[in-house]
Design goal:
Shape: globular
Largest sheet: 5 strands, parallel
Structural class: alpha/beta
Distance between the termini: 39 Å
Number of helices: 11
Low-confidence stretches: none
Strand content: 15-25%
Length: 220
């Protein structure tokens, strides 16, 4: 049985908030427990243990979603956080990872209109993975001289899909290869990036390396 994921939404645009709530509530494995328009309301309802994933708009009328996420996660270290923004906040997103008790995810409002992308990102974030916006991931290129730039095209392709939150099986289906081939690529990626640890932590570390060692263009 798929575990239930409880989601809290902080989004000031009523139409966007309603769309997010309806899309996520339609999933049997997801329950939206909070849907509020700003920081003031969020501080009242987001009590520790009340939800598993906080879905936070970055620009709010009475504050900032990044600062709110830091505050909520300090009060509840097991809370997963996913940012939503219509602007490129990758730099800010990268910085906040250093002080997070659990890695954060980031989705643009453009991608959040795609039901499968939104649902996959929420579920993966709840499982402790880092999910980056597919629009930005596909426009990311390795920085010259970085460890990521030393990956083969096939390895970089696998890392891109892992950064989007795809499972090994889903990544294999997207690339037309089997799951074992994806696992083999991941082992090579971890080795080339100098990543040790268990499977879960290595996956998160690889995505963070992707984030830090690639550049991207943003067209809103």
């Amino acid at each position: 049985m798929t575990p239930l994921t409880r989601v809290g939404i902080v989004e000031d645009e009523a139409l966007m908030r309603s769309m997010l709530e309806q899309t996520l509530s339609a999933q049997e494995s997801i329950r939206v427990v909070h849907a509020v328009p700003g920081v003031t309301e969020a501080r009242l309802v987001f009590t520790p243990g009340s939800c598993d994933v906080a879905l936070l708009d970055v620009n709010l009328p009475d504050g900032n979603g990044v600062a709110l996420g830091v505050t909520l996660q300090r009060a509840d270290p097991r809370l997963a956080v996913m940012l939503l923004s219509s602007e490129d906040v990758m730099g800010l997103f990268t910085t906040v990872q250093d002080q997070a008790s659990r890695p954060w995810s980031y989705l643009s409002k453009r991608s959040s209109f795609a039901r499968d992308v939104l649902v996959r990102a929420v579920v993966a974030t709840a499982q402790g993975q880092v999910v980056l916006d597919p629009y930005l991931v596909q426009r990311s290129q390795p920085r010259p001289g970085s460890a990521v730039s030393e990956l083969t095209p096939a390895q970089f392709g696998v890392l891109r899909l892992v950064a989007e939150g795809l499972s090994n099986q889903a990544a294999g289906e997207r690339l037309g290869i089997n799951e074992r081939s994806v696992e083999s690529h991941l082992k090579s990626i971890y080795q080339r990036l100098g990543i040790d640890g268990d499977g879960h932590n290595r996956r998160v570390a690889a995505v963070l390396a992707f984030l830090e060692q690639t550049g991207r263009t943003w067209r809103g």
